[in-house]
Amino acid sequence: MKAPLTFDLVTMGRSSIDLYANEVGAPFVDIKSFAAYVGGSPTNIAVGAQRLGLKTAVLTAVGDDPVADFILQFLNHEHVETKFIPRKLGTRTSAVVLGIEPPDKFPLVYYRDNCADIELSIDDVLKAPMDNCRIFELSGTGLSREPSRSATLFAAELAKAAGATVILDLDFRPNQWHDARAYGVVIRSALSLVDIALGTEDECKAVTLSDAAQVSVAHSQISGAQVSGNLENAIAAIQARGPKTVVVKRGEKGAALFEAGKRQSDVPGFPVEVCNVLGAGDAFAAGFIYGLSKGWDFYKAARMGNACGAIVVTRHGCANFMAYEQEALNFVSERGGW
Question: What Cα–Cα distance (Å) separates residue 135 from each residue in 21, 132, 194, 236?
Fold first, then answer.
């Protein structure tokens, strides 16, 4: 009999210290102080899933600096496994500075020059439990540069070969790519390793980004512009290359499920008063993965993802404010159930 797997979820990619403006609603130039939290999409997802009761590990990298100590202490306190996180000498742990101007302005600035997590290597992957997890989650930003790109693809190969479900968070950050079109090229090459893709409408469209006219739009995406193109065509292109299920995160509208051979299924969200939308997608992913680990169908799993996303947008930050299992279950039951 095969021994039980140690981890429900292993995530891979970026980690950072996130500095969130304390002055909610203030223009960025008028910010006086920041609160320090832990961030980075795969790291947020690992924390969120751990709080929901899953056993998680994160494969990221940190520098030999006090910021690394800050991140590792938080993850250890959250019981996320950190023993696979290397320190990369000569690099810096990543940082992000974020403003909060509800309802629709959430400016953020990345500090990722010489960052540690982009230096993740194949050797680091070989030390990680890729053959000992039920679900492996990777992110688009981890594919933006070498050596992280090859390491991430190798990790997905190992996980898939071992029977894990491979989930790709499309995680399109245009300013992390030398050319926005390169994002689509690389993501398309990775899709054969993926079972489920998660992303916003813009991120799904960016997978097929190819013409120069779209590039300037894509680079302004974080400011609110939309990547042009047809969503249905983008979904079809993604599914043709591997993942038969694509989950589109739609914010306050909930989520849309695209399963190969089936009609689109819309999963309603939960109306809440928004404080900060940053981290909502990662909370959704944590809730969705929780549902998958419980053997739920995609609709119910996405409904849990919507609940976790709705909870976190009422709060100040990301990882530090992820929902706990009973809290999220109660949230759903108090609002009409599944």
Answer: 34, 9, 11, 24
258, 245 Cβ separation under 8 angstroms: yes
Question: Tokens at residue 160, please?
Answer: 């898939």
At 128, give phi and psi (nearest 5°). -100, 160
Has residue 2 been placed in a domain?
no
Q: Is 4 contained in some domain?
A: no
What CA–CA distances, in Å, run from 199 to 27, 59, 73, 75, 85? 28, 21, 30, 25, 26
User: Which contiguous run of DSSP H or E holds residue 249?
Assistant: strand 245-249
What tens digit of pLDDT does each residue of 226-236 get?
666 789 999 99
User: Residue 239 has which token pair?
Assistant: 């599914």
Print the domain residue range for 197: 11-333
- 338 in a structural domain: no
Give the list of residues 6+ apart from residue 229 with CB closer than 8 angstroms, or none: 205, 208, 209, 214
Between vectors from CA 50 to CA 265 and to CA 60, what angle results, nearest 5°? 95
Q: Is 10 helix (H, G, I), strand (E, B) or coil?
A: strand
Phi, psi (5° rounding) for residue 115? -80, 150
End-to-end Cα distance, the chain: 35
Condensed to tens digits (0 to 9), the pLDDT of residues 286-336 reads 999 999 999 999 999 999 999 999 999 999 999 999 999 999 999 999 998
